[in-house]
Amino acid sequence: MEIIKIVGIGIVATVFIIILKSTRPEFALYISLLTGVVIFTMILGELSYVIQTLNTLARRVNIEFAYFSTILKIIGMAYIVEFGAQISRDAGEDSIAMKIELGGKVIIMVLAIPILLALMELIIKILP
User: What is the pLDDT of residue 105?
Assistant: First the structure.
């Protein structure tokens, strides 16, 4: 199972990071970054499957492709922002992590505006 590999890599990396933090803290950060990249590449296949499935579903229910692609961008951006913020937190930079999260939230809101406008138009058409 893939999850066992991911958790195993995470636990091994955590042990190495704990050992290295006292002697070589810069290597601890490198191991954290490398572990994140390795785990991300391991789940790329799963992400591809999810995107294909959602794409098929969107075609079946006739969702406009612009809305579907926007939703996928928002989901992807949320994961990227979380990944970046966690790396900053691992490096001890909580204030930078909070700013990354704020930037991500603002950009997600900007991307969501067309969907919100379309939803408002639909509600206005339904109301008498």
Answer: 95
